[in-house]
Amino acid sequence: MKEKIISVKNISKQYQQEQASGIHNISFDIHKGDIIAIIGESGSGKSTLLKCIYGLLTLDEGEVFYQDEKVWGPDVLLIPGHKQMKMVTQDFSLNIYAKVYDNIASMMANTDVHHKHQKTMEMMAHLHIDHLKDKKITQLSGGEQQRVAIAKALVTDTSVLLLDEPFSQVDALLKNQLRADIKRIAAETGVTVIMVSHDPADGLFLADELLMMKDGHLIERGKPADIYQQPKHIYTARMLGNAVVLNQEEANKLGLEVKDGHAVFYPEWVELNNSWNSRRFEVKDVYYKGFYEELLLERHGVKIRAIQLNRGVHKKNDHVQANIGRFLSL
Ligand SMILES: Nc1ncnc2c1ncn2[C@@H]1O[C@H](COP(=O)(O)OP(=O)(O)OP(=O)(O)O)[C@@H](O)[C@H]1O
């Protein structure tokens, strides 16, 4: 069992008197070396939760602990938080006039100049930015600046790295690279990462554990594969996998037995085949998705979506046999 590094105990934070804002009664533990992704729609409280863990906000209720030490907020400390925790925000907070090397080195005291130099060089190598050492921040791309910001955060023997929307400034190509980098850095350094993202794919790719936020509440948590395959909420299935959600009447029309609630399934759970129990659907539309196509299918006025890996097999207006192999009653 991994060692517990952060404990969040019943924390609440409301902005003004608006019930809808902030976060409500949230508790969980984080284990050393894990990557945690906080996922949720805009306004669900992701950033507020991250700030509360970091000690940036005064809590209305509850406590946050780094190991056994309480993380104090701005009501108690001039520089709130815990020295083992560092946050990289979307604006990176770099000194844009200074060189990359100096940005990183400036985080350490001058008491041991040799150590300071060594640590800076080591961290730049980890982040693959050693070749940028003498460049000014203004000469760097968004992705490069982000690596400098992470190096700066980690150089002081940080144990917990908090990342607020780490991929918001970069294009799709670089995003894949940065996701892989964060995974590699966490594995190499043993740092615990807590990140906030509005893109669930980040969490599915990177995280050991996902925390799903909705309306300021932590509604479920779990390993990406578990939470994807067995979500407890329609919201989670929708956020993580573009799920098809049918109400009871629609589900019954397709022969799916749902007592109350909804039938929920992902397009990849729909099998296009000719098995005895498959049903005939009309292809209403075909969406090109690169290495696969998504088919919009209809039967008895109910629309569902399915995945077609071999392009062009079924076309618009065709009739296909489809079997909803698995669905969840939510
Ligand atoms: N400083 C503030 N003052 C008042 N209300 C706030 C403040 N910051 C956030 N809120 C409100 O609290 C709720 C949660 O906001 P938060 O920024 O934590 O959500 P989020 O999930 O990070 O959203 P986004 O993905 O859009 O950044 C929202 O309703 C928001 O309007």
Automatic annotation (TrEMBL):
Classification via Gene3D superfamilies: P-loop containing nucleotide triphosphate hydrolases
A GO term, aspect molecular function: ATP binding
Database matches in InterPro entries: AAA+_ATPase (IPR003593), ABC_SmlMolc_Importer (IPR050093), ABC_transporter-like_ATP-bd (IPR003439), ABC_transporter-like_CS (IPR017871), P-loop_NTPase (IPR027417)
Organism: Pedobacter gandavensis
Alphabetic keyword roster: ATP-binding, Nucleotide-binding, Transport
Signal sequence interval, chain numbering: none
Name of the protein this chain belongs to: ATP-binding cassette domain-containing protein
Residue span(s) of domain ABC transporter: 6-240
PROSITE patterns documented for this protein: ABC_TRANSPORTER_1, ABC_TRANSPORTER_2
Record flagged with keyword Metal-binding: no
